[in-house]
Specification:
The complex is a heterodimer of chains A (about 190) and B (about 200). Chain A is of the alpha+beta class and about 190 residues long. Helices cover about 35% and strands about 35% of the residues of chain A. Chain A has one domain (about 5-190): Aminohydrolase, N-terminal nucleophile (Ntn) domain (Glutamine Phosphoribosylpyrophosphate, subunit 1, domain 1, 4-Layer Sandwich), CATH 3.60.20. Chain A has four helices and twelve strands. In chain A, strands 10-1-2-11-12 form a five-stranded antiparallel beta sheet, with helices on one face. A five-stranded antiparallel beta sheet of chain A has the order 5-6-7-8-9, covered by helices on one side. In chain A, strands 3-4 form a two-stranded antiparallel sheet. In chain A, helix 3 crosses helix 4 (about 150-170). Chain B has about 200 residues and is of the alpha+beta class. Chain B has one domain (about 5-200): Glutamine Phosphoribosylpyrophosphate, subunit 1, domain 1, CATH 3.60.20. Helix content of chain B is about 30%, strand content about 30%. Chain B is globular, with a radius of gyration of 16 Å. The chains are: A alpha+beta (about 190), B alpha+beta (about 200).
Chain lengths: ~190, ~200
């Protein structure tokens, strides 16, 4: 099961995902990067059904790029989040996409923002959140450790504590994780566990 | 689990003397997992009209966006805000349009008519509208909320008394509800202002 968590800090968003790709009981690879960039300052973390995940993310990313090409300006994170929700909501009552996702982005005006969306097209702006079984173990921990002026180092410490909890208590815990940060300088990998 | 209790909500609206108050809890959850505690379920349509939507949150969001769209068009055409009674009827119609594939959201409309009289109405998921002189509520534990409101409401309350009453009803009504609570937000609408207060309640 895919594991994604996100934490919004003072002027950055940190996301962590596991890096395993598997089909039922078979592990295909252990170094898959599931945090996909939408543009220079936004990323998607999409978990869910096999085909829907990639199909949906590619569809959204292509449309975001098309908007940027047509209008000469990039969309901000809130717009991308609402556009994505709209696509999920429209498809919901015909052929729904079965994916839960996190959207992390940085804009000059709004700063860092983190959005949580589920397969029913429920959209929420959050400070900490996640999807998957692993997130159940992390959310309370994050509630305790989060504060509005979080720094990158504190964020990494939070993530490591969460991952340690998942590894200890989740029966099917993934072995490897990747942590990325989105801030004014773009997207970068902070740690590989 | 019922689709109406997938996310969880509690919304109470009450009428006072030339004022109305509407409040909701702040929990957003997915079945038994709480995700955030800052998601109000009451939306402002205009200064004298507020809409509360309980039920499946995605449908509540979609419905709210559709209604804002229709209200904005109305404002452009009519050059005025929509009356709450008109809005209630429009909402009822919008819900019944989807009779055989409904929005899983139950609304409560609270507002002041142009002459200052309070207006309250509520609907079920397919738009069966019922208006009320005292209170209107919806949510995942309506029995608790009805019990509280029926005993606490009295006619001709002023804005401060009305706020106190709605606050106590909402807080006590949500205490026994696992899916609603985690804070509350209450708007008190009078003819010249809207006062919004956020309450910290039992955080469980």
């Amino acid at each position: 099961m895919d594991f994604f968590v996100g934490i919004k800090g003072k002027d950055f968003v940190m996301v962590c995902s596991d890096t395993s790709a598997s089909h039922s009981i078979i592990s295909i690879k252990q170094d898959e990067d599931k945090i996909v960039p939408i543009d220079s300052h936004k990323v998607f973390c999409i978990a869910g059904e096999a085909g829907d995940r990639v199909n949906f993310s590619e569809y959204i990313i292509a449309n975001i790029k098309l908007y940027a090409l047509r209008n000469g300006t990039e969309l901000n994170t809130k717009s991308v989040a609402n556009y994505t929700r709209g696509e999920l909501a429209t498809a919901l009552r015909s052929s729904p996409y079965h994916c839960n996702l996190l959207l992390a982005g940085y804009d000059k005006e709004a700063g860092a923002s983190l959005y949580w969306m589920d397969y029913l097209a429920t959209l929420n702006k959050i400070n900490t959140g996640g999807t998957g079984y692993g997130s159940y173990f992390c959310l309370s921990l994050f509630d305790k450790m989060w504060h509005p002026n979080l720094t990158v180092d504190e964020g990494v410490a939070m993530m490591e504590a969460g991952i340690a909890e998942v590894k200890k208590r989740l029966v099917v815990a993934p072995p490897h994780y990747i942590i990325k940060v989105v801030d004014k300088d773009g997207v970068r990998v902070v740690k590989n566990i | 689990m019922s689709i109406f209790s997938y996310n969880g909500a509690a919304i109470v609206a009450m009428a006072g003397k030339e004022c109305v108050a509407i409040g909701s809890d702040l929990r957003f959850g997915v079945q038994l997992q709480t995700m955030t505690c800052d998601t109000p379920k009451v939306y402002k349509i205009h200064d004298k009209l507020y809409l509360g939507l309980s039920g499946l949150q995605t449908d509540a969001t979609t419905l709210h966006q559709k209604l804002m769209f229709r209200h904005n068009l109305y404002k452009l055409r009519e050059e005025r805000d929509m009356k709450p009674s008109t809005f209630g009827n429009m909402l009822s119609n919008a819900l019944y349009e989807r009779r055989f594939g409904p929005y899983f959201a139950a609304p409560v409309v609270a507002g002041l008519e142009p002459d200052g009289t309070p207006f309250l109405c509520g609907m079920d998921t397919i738009g069966a509208i019922e208006s009320s002189k005292d209170f209107m509520l919806t949510g995942t534990s309506p029995e608790s909320l009805y019990g509280m409101c029926e005993s606490m409401w009295r006619p001709d309350m002023d804005p401060d008394e009305l706020f106190e009453t709605v606050a106590q009803c909402l807080m006590s009504g949500c205490d026994r509800d696992a899916l609603a609570g985690w804070g509350a937000i209450i708007h008190v609408i009078t003819k010249d202002q809207v006062i919004t207060r956020t309450l910290k309640t039992r955080m469980d």
